[in-house]
Write a structure and sequence with these properties.
This protein is mainly alpha-helical. It contains 9 helices and 2 strands, in the order ααααααααββα.
Length: 173
């Protein structure tokens, strides 16, 4: 086993990952539910995303990224590359939906995906299985699941940053 694999095994525990992943919907819900559009549609300008956009993106990931890719690793290994992920699908998929609908859909999908993940009772050896990422090349299931956690935390930070910027802009106006 390589030093990198040893380090990754020490740093990643599936129970810790699922604890974080399970908290994301309630964390985001507490931040956004019931806020007016002036908060949920705010962004930092240019091509940046609003909290509404981020929730749509997270929903798309629940449908097409994390668990589907984990399933590919478990069933096909590196023989079948992951489908390409459309990072911008939320712009079309979220049209006509309210923030409340998105929050509810995200919570439901996340609960279903975590139930699936837990039902697999993944072993350390399974977590070391590899799949073929279309951009990154070979990745282990452990790396995929760890990236899911990083992805959640990064988007929570993004939401809070956008909200803080809006509040600063209002304070300085």
């Amino acid at each position: 086993m390589t030093d990198t694999l040893d380090r990754t095994r020490r740093l990643f525990a599936i129970e810790d990952a699922t604890d974080i992943l399970a908290r994301t919907p309630s964390t985001i819900n507490a931040l956004l539910r019931g806020l007016p559009a002036s908060w949920t549609l705010a962004h930092e300008g240019g091509e940046t995303w609003s909290p509404f956009d981020v929730i749509g993106h997270l929903i798309h990931g629940e449908r097409t990224d994390w668990v589907p890719r984990a399933r590919v690793i478990l069933e096909h290994g590196e023989a079948r590359p992951f489908a390409t992920f459309d990072r911008f699908a939320q712009f079309e998929n979220s049209k006509g939906k309210s923030m409340t609908q998105l929050l509810d859909e995200f919570a439901r999908l996340r609960a279903e995906n975590l139930d699936t993940l837990r039902s697999w009772s993944l072993s350390e050896d399974q977590l070391d299985l590899e799949g073929m990422h279309p951009e990154l090349g070979l990745v282990t299931l452990r790396q995929l699941l760890s990236t899911w956690v990083v992805h959640d935390l990064t988007h929570i930070r993004q939401i809070v940053t956008v909200m803080a910027k809006r509040a600063v802009d209002a304070a300085l106006s």
